[in-house]
Amino acid sequence: MSISRHPRSWVTCANDHPDFPLQNLPFGVFSRPGFGKRGGVAIGDFILDLQAALEASLFNGVARLAAEAASRSQLNDFFALGASARQALRYELLHLLDENSPQRERLQALGTTLLCPMSECQMHLPAQVGDYTDFYVGIHHATNVGKLFRPDQPLLPNYKYVPIAYHGRASTLCVSGTPVKRPCGQTITPGVEVPAFGPSKRLDYELEVGVWMGQGNETGEPIPIAEASEHIAGFCLLNDWSARDLQAWEYQPLGPFLSKSFATSLSPWVVTAEALAPFRRAQPARPDGDPKPLDYLFDEQDQQRGALDVELEVLLLTAQMKEQGLAPQRLALSNMLNMYWTVAQMVTHHSVNGCKLQPGDLFGTGTLSGPQTGQFGSLLEMTEGGKHPVELSSGETRTFLQAGDEVILTARCRKDGEVSIGFGECRGVVVG
Question: In degrees rounded to 5, what are phi and psi of residue 247?
Answer without folding.
Answer: -60, -40
